[in-house]
Write a structure and sequence with these properties.
24 helices; about 700 residues; six-stranded parallel sheet; elongated; single chain; alpha/beta; binds thiamine diphosphate; binds magnesium ion
């Protein structure tokens, strides 16, 4: 139709719609071609969908992409990122900095799209939260986006229930997520969809790009189930749009979603990957490689686009977006801002809470009444101390909530004070989330809640952190304050045996950049661990807690537990300091190290115990502090940790010794396991002496 070159004054609305759709298509094609890498086919197919969602439906103000009551858009098939870069660019979405201030410049410039996938471009390979304003969550690992969207939907329900008042719908936003075959093959999507159906999340809409193509070819190779029936069985409303190019039908389906109450909506959209490329359409060749110059020309021809034009945004396209999402979003935000002003006058405390949580700040007195545990040789389990802390925090911080993957009674994560309640469809203000036995979805949902500015935690046995690991990694990548409470952190699960005994988990989580791991050594260290991580607005944390009681150390004799905030601290020292041997321990091995230390002292050996609950926090301390805890000249060192020895050389040095795990555990009572694997005071003493004799 050649509209790209036409004078926009003469174009009908339908022609302008088409012009916008083809702009998204050709920007995507050109960007991938220029980068010589990327995924053109899905943007070509889904441009009409993304155009319709953004320009006809989404309540999103490009001038303020963090307005709290905006609709959320999640591109779960993150490889089709050019859809998002196009939408952000064409809508004129503004950049926001880390202090939540708009910067007066576009989030994604045309130049960023020209530099798609290049260093520092705001159009990277996949959608990156925290890097590009307007991206609601990082996607790329398939399934994560839609699973995270369930957390966003739970978050909205909770916020609405907690903060809305008669005539004050402060929160009433929807979550739109787009996904492909890959997302729906991933198990995490099934876990999340099942829970979303159970919870009747009618603020959640997934659109499934049903193109029958993945990388290896047709979905006939591996994916022949009846997806619609699966979602019906989950309790979703299932709709179908048989033509991905039909904007009105798409809009119609989205309108049905908005009217549907009591269940989430799943829209099956039949599409053609590589739409318009005559030799590549409907083939996997359109998925993940540039079309090639010849095919690009042919595709542009089929859209009625100038064949030689590159990165063309025809006159009128920006204006059409401004008149669509721009006008609708601005009006919605203005109305909301007025409403919120009146709300603030009537409910100043609630408005203040909303202000605080939006900036990831904590309310005054958030840590009041945290327990202090008296010295007790019998002690208390890490998980029990944690349970007490969680119940205090949840009462002090209205938007602190969470739950377990069906292990609440074991993890001791149940919030059991009066009024805590369960989060269910009928009670969306409850603070106990029941994730069911769905650890991966739990991780993603916790992230979705954190993206909704709540302070969420998820819990399971430490061994099953593996099942949540992809989401924990994304929490770190996104710099989210997601909190993971993992109990049964070592051999404490004794008789359950090696399937339930984590060995490599600490090492593997310590390897994730930006993630804080903490393995507290007694009940007071548990308190301090929580106190520390709650103050981190942009970092996820893993707490590894014991199942069995750990002696509560006498802090009048040993150093205060506040040392946890330095990651490692001198807990017990030789009289007058100046140690000749250092024992470093974490978690359940701290009291063991203290026993060994006392024995060494009676033998006249000048030992020091360093409690090291967190490598990462310690690494962030100034060198002078680190050297004061681990003086470089003291080479005789022993580390004790009931976990893989992997990595401990960095603290004990090449000549040091690590008492840890080099094999899997075994099924036996804990005492026998401690003997078998060497976690006994005599063994620590012997190792310390051997170290001394060597240095
Ligand atoms: C967890 C995960 N596994 C594998 C990949 C690699 N990958 C990227 S896209 C893709 C195929 C996805 O197929 P589909 O979702 O149907 O996308 P389409 O080609 O139809 O856009 C694969 C396997 C990934 N990104 N994430
Ligand atoms: Mg596909």
């Amino acid at each position: 139709m050649g509209a790209a070159g036409a004078n926009v004054v003469n174009l009908t609305d339908a022609q302008l719609d088409q012009l916008c759709v083809n702009t998204i298509r050709t920007l995507s094609i050109d960007a991938v071609q220029q980068a010589n890498s990327g995924h053109p086919g899905t943007p070509m197919a889904l441009a009409p969908l993304v155009y319709t969602i953004w320009n006809r439906v989404l309540r999103f103000d490009p001038q303020n992409p963090i307005w709290p009551n905006r609709d959320r858009f999640v591109l779960s098939n993150g490889h089709a990122s050019m859809l998002l870069w196009s939408a952000l660019h064409l809508s004129g979405t503004q950049a926001v900095n880390a202090n939540y201030e708009t910067l007066g410049q576009p989030s994604v410039k045309l130049d960023d799209i020209r530099r798609f996938r290049q260093l520092d471009s705001k159009a990277p390979g996949h959608p990156e939260y925290h890097w590009v304003s307007g991206v609601e969550t990082t996607t790329g690992p398939l399934g994560q986006g839609i699973a995270t969207s369930v957390g966003m939907a739970i978050g909205e329900k909770w916020l609405a229930h907690h903060y809305n008042r008669p005539d004050f719908e402060i929160f009433d936003y929807n979550i739109y997520a787009v996904c492909g075959d890959g997302c729906l093959m991933e198990g995490v999507a099934s876990e999340a969809a099942s829970l979303a159906g159970h919870l009747g999340l009618d603020n959640l809409c997934w659109v499934y790009d049903n193109n029958h193509i993945t990388i290896e070819g047709s979905t006939r190779l591996a994916f022949t189930e009846d997806v619609e029936t699966r979602f019906l069985a989950y309790g979703w409303n299932v709709l179908r749009v048989g033509d991905a190019n039909d904007l009105d039908r798409i809009e119609n389906a989205l309108n049905i979603f908005r009217k549907t109450k009591g269940r989430p909506t799943f829209i099956v959209l039949d599409s053609h990957i590589g739409y318009g490329a005559p030799n590549k359409q409907d083939t996997s060749a359109a998925h993940g490689e540039p079309l090639g110059e010849d095919e690009v020309r042919l595709a542009k021809q089929s859209y009625g686009w100038p064949e030689e034009a590159k990165f063309l945004v025809p006159e009128g396209v920006y204006r059409h977006f401004a008149g669509g999402v721009g006008t609708r979003g601005a009006e919605a935000r203005q109305k909301w801002t007025q409403l919120f002003g009146a709300y603030r006058a009537k409910y100043p405390d609630l408005a203040n809470e909303i202000d605080l949580l939006q900036r990831r700040e904590l309310p005054a007195g958030w840590d009041r009444n945290l327990p202090v545990f008296p010295p007790d040789p019998k002690g208390i389990a890490g998980r029990d101390a944690s349970g007490k802390v969680l119940n205090v925090l949840a009462q002090n911080i209205p938007w602190f909530l969470g739950g377990s993957a069906d292990l609440g009674p074991s993890n001791k994560t149940t919030l059991n004070y009066t009024g805590a309640g369960d989060f269910q469809a009928e009670t969306p203000g409850g603070k106990n989330l029941h994730f069911g036995i769905r650890e991966h979805a739990m991780g993603a949902i916790v992230n979705g809640l954190a993206l909704s500015k709540l302070r969420p935690f998820g819990a399971t046995f430490f061994i099953f952190s593996d099942f949540a690991r992809p989401a924990i990694r994304l929490a770190a990548l996104m710099e989210l304050p997601s909190l993971f409470v993992f109990t049964h952190d070592a051999m404490g699960d004794g008789e359950d045996g090696p399937t339930h005994q984590p060995v490599e988990h600490l090492a593997s989580l310590r390897a994730i950049p930006g993630l804080i791991t903490l393995r507290p050594g007694d009940a007071n260290e548990v308190v301090e661990a929580y106190r520390y991580v709650l103050q981190l607005p942009h970092q996820p944390a893993v707490l590894a807690l014991s199942r069995q009681p750990l002696p509560t150390l006498d802090r009048s004799k040993y150093a205060p537990a506040s040392g946890v905030a330095q990651g490692a601290y001198v807990l017990a020292d030789a009289p007058g300091g100046n140690p000749e041997v250092i024992i470093i321990a974490s978690g359940s091995e701290v009291s063991l190290a203290v026993q060994a230390h006392e024995n060494l002292l009676t033998e006249g050996i000048r030992s020091r115990v360093v409690s090291m609950p967190s490598w990462e926090i310690f690494e962030h301390q100034p060198e002078a502090y680190r050297d004061s805890v681990l003086p470089p000249n003291v080479k005789a060192r022993v580390a004790v940790e009931q976990a893989s020895t992997f990595g401990w050389e960095r603290y004990v040095g090449n000549s040091g010794h690590v008492i840890g795990m080099n094999t899997f555990g075994a099924s036996a009572p804990l005492k026998e396991l401690q003997r078998k694997f060497g976690f006994e005071p005599d063994r620590v003493v012997a190792s310390a002496k051997k170290q001394l004799s060597r240095t």
